Amino acid sequence: MGSRPQRLLTVFAPIAFFVGLIVAERFVVEQLLPIPVSMLLTVAIATVGIILFNVWITRRLNASQERIIRQNRQLAALDEASIVIASELSLERVLQRIVDIVRELSGARYAALGILGPDGYLTDLITSGLTAAERAAIGALPRNHGILGTMLRDGQPVRVPNVAAEPARLGFPPNHPKMTKLMGVPIVSGSTIIGNLYLADKIGGGEFTDDDERLIVLLASHAAVAIENARLHQQVQRLAAYEERNRIARELHDGTIQSIYGVNLVLEDAQLLLAENPAAASARIDEAIDSLNEVIVEIRGYIHNLRSQLEPGSLTEMIADLVAAHRRATGVDIQFSAEGQLAFDPEATWQVLQFVREALSNIARHAAANRVTIRLISRDDDVTIEIEDNGRGFDPAAPNRLGNGLRNMRERVASLGGDLQIDSAPGVGTRLVATIPASQGVRT
After folding, report:
1. Structure letter (DSSP) for residue 256
2. Which CATH class, in words, describes the domain spanning 315-443?
3. Are the C-beta atoms of 127 and 111 separated by less than 8 Å?
4. Where would I find the H helices in 88-209?
5. How far apart are the C-alpha atoms of 213 and 208, rounded to whole Å?
6. Is the overall model pTM greater than 0.70, yes or no?
7. Which residues pair with 424 in a beta bridge?
8. Architecture of domain 89-227
9. DSSP 3
10. How confident is the model over 392-414, as pLDDT tens digits?
11. Beta-carbon neighbour count of residue 171 at 10 Å?
């Protein structure tokens, strides 16, 4: 909007111009030229002045209108970010939307958001402006050195007009896109820095502005709320799981384990009777078998109760959480996407989740892959789960190449009436495609 002297100047400059014009016409022009000529000259000058003043006013109004439009877009983006944080439990999706918003509104070519772990190093990096292949080619996460490391240590925003000329610069890793201009802010929760949010290079050139910095600072505060909300949610889930394990342990100890101990006593009694009274021993063994059948029913009841706690429609979120945890544990770049409206019943949710878990475990143990893509696609008639890695691969037709993991995955898919296709060859990675009919425990 400008300083107070600038605003006063824009108001009084036109007034001073016209006052000066009148004075000049009255005391100078009329003395030098005939009255008709001086009047015509005065009118001409006044007309030009009015035209120039209108042009100036129009430009000012257009600039104000553009500023208002930009501010409205920023307010709408902040409102959207607030809604996403309140309605979405998947931290990765919330942060991805925040990164996309800040890149779009600032006109930046690239944007990224990093999350710090307890050791001060990045545990995750969400990017915008890079394809999945470009992101995977960069490799490992940054180690918080160089310019961004300085920002995290100082806790202050940075704006770098020329990265190459910055003394703290350490250079870019192989396959990293070259960046010239950089602006970043730390993500702060309370007094603790928990991440960073930064932009690189305007698409149309130019410098990052104060408005860009205000926007990224606001969205960094939204990201801090989202990260803390997700961590609190995880803590609640861990506490609930801990309490549930204790409850099951108590019930197993008080019920199932006692029942098994009782069966053990019956079998010991049968063993003593076996030589003296085979008929009585046989009866005791039959009694033990009946008791074991009751224990099996009881254990199945526990399993059913655990599975029934999975709410319909939660599979997408659960796979996203599984992917995030696996990514942190292995360092493998895993990209997950879901297409279509998905709703699963508890049994299908359990089976598909275990299918994905076993696939990721197999890749970690055998594939030596550094990139995995998972797609969950819902159609009218079926749901497809595609899992592809760039690992060492294998020959599915070779004898004994389908180990227990792949057999278990095939059995899980078959239990839902589906089919599992395995496409692999040595040196080219592996692609699993599970197709599950919508009529078999999966609703779309």
Report:
1. I
2. alpha beta
3. yes
4. 91-106, 132-138, 146-154
5. 7
6. no
7. 430
8. 2-Layer Sandwich (3.30)
9. -
10. 988 887 766 566 678 888 888 88
11. 8
